[in-house]
Amino acid sequence: MIPVAAAPGSGVFVVQSVMPPLAPWRGRLVVLAGIVLVGLNLRIAVAAVSPIIQVVRQDFALTDTQVGLLGTVPVASFALFGSLATPVARRLGLEPTMILALLLSMTGELLRALAGGAPAFIGWSVIALGGLGMGNVLLPPLVKRYFPDRIGTVTASYSVAMSVSAAVPPLVALPVAQAAGWRWSVGMWAILGFAAVVPWVVVIVQSVSARSHLRKLLRRAPRSDRPAALVRAGAQESRIVWRSRLAWALVLAFFANTTCTYVLFAWLPEILADAGLGADVGGRWLAVFAILGLPASIVSPVLTARMRNPFPLVVGFAACWVAGLLGLMLVPAQGTALWMVLVGIGPGTFPIMLALIGLRSRTPAIAVALSGMVQGLGYALAVVGPVGIGVLHVATGSWREPFLVLLGLVALLLVAGWFACRPTMLGPEPAA
Question: pLDDT, tens digit, for every residue of 192-231?
């Protein structure tokens, strides 16, 4: 659906069910390849370390504090660098900024593989994950720019790639570390980052406006002389986004879902071990939890794009969250498979929010500003989740209170999702 009528004077636009003519895929396949390859990189720097952390710990004598810091680095880096992606994209353009993000990630992955000690390993991990944080923010506006007629399908494509990037490294990281050493296991993923750079270089080479824009920047031309970028989020777009109830609803929904997901990534093995199932069993269920995001990544963005109001999807995924969390809280050792399937399906709201960034933005410029706000602020709020839940568990000596907090976050997800899914659009009113 596309917006064709505006609510006068509001800056918020009503969606009407008028479909644009579908453009052919021809001419956009290079961009699609670039988007999917970026998706394949977005979780690797996170998922490649945790399976071999004990091997790294033996080499560097990592303290418990440093191990805990490594668990917090992903969300913190996503928040910090994701917030930087918007102003950088305003100046450089989306495609050059994506190349910069990929180069940052590749550099961090390679140099942390060569690190001589724990501080360097952690520091270069920040850079590797920071590049991915920028990539997180840039993908929705790139989809909006190149595939406004296929937002659901393309969002599903890179969401699936993200799920693969989270599921594959745990399967191969430890065998490679045992065969060739942990440094090879950590650094080899930079090859995939290099592969993701190539399509975006091709896109820039083929784009006359992008080349002209970069030449002007390199010559340090006055701002008034620089060519107008095809995608630019200026002060007006930022004001519209930050004053929007829709944008804040997306932030809160993103925060609630992300916090629940990362808390389980951090604590699920210990939760199941405390239930008497053993740490090895908890590790296997954690892998299942990651893989179960794949079906939702395929289905939910496509359905979101086809529905005027996708809130029923949010309700369905939230119901899975509630049932799974209640099962893990009350009887974790009984029916564990069912509880894990349910909490594995619950994060399907994540690709819904990614799709809504493009679907609710009138222009790519608005999508840049909205994506930066939603992901930057959402990840920033989620930083306290894993640490706070751990502190609460230690303070109470029980997992009951932490699970009640997670259930409260699911309630927040429902309320915020109701506002986020309403059929409104962000952007300036069209000319008469």
Answer: 999 999 999 998 887 655 556 555 555 554 443 343 443 4
Which residues have C-beta within 8 Å of that of residue 129, sequence separation ≥ 6?
45, 46, 73, 74, 77, 78, 81, 105, 108
Amino acid type, 65 = T
Residues 226, 32, 144, 165, CA torsion sign: negative
DSSP 188: T
Contacts of residue 185, defined as CB under 8 A and 6 or more positions apart, other chains included, come to 48, 52, 173, 174, 176, 177
Among residues 175, 159, 200, 184, which one has the least CA distance to residue 40? 159
123 lies in which domain range?
A: 22-232
Count helices and strands (H / E) in the chain.
21, 3
Residues 235-260 have pLDDT tens digits of 677 788 888 899 999 999 999 999 99
Three-state SS at 275 = coil
Co-location of 250 and 189 in the same domain: no
Burial class (CB in 10 A: 0-12, 13-18, 19+), 75: buried
Q: Alpha carbon of 393 to those of 67, 263, 271, 327, 396: distances in Å?
A: 18, 12, 10, 18, 5
User: Do 429 and 379 share a domain, yes or no?
Assistant: yes
Q: Residue 17 forms beta bridges with which residues?
A: 2
Residues 197, 284 share a domain: no
Together in a domain, 210 and 274: no
Distance CA 367, CA 142 (A): 9
Whether the model clears a pTM of 0.90, i.e. scores above it, the answer is no
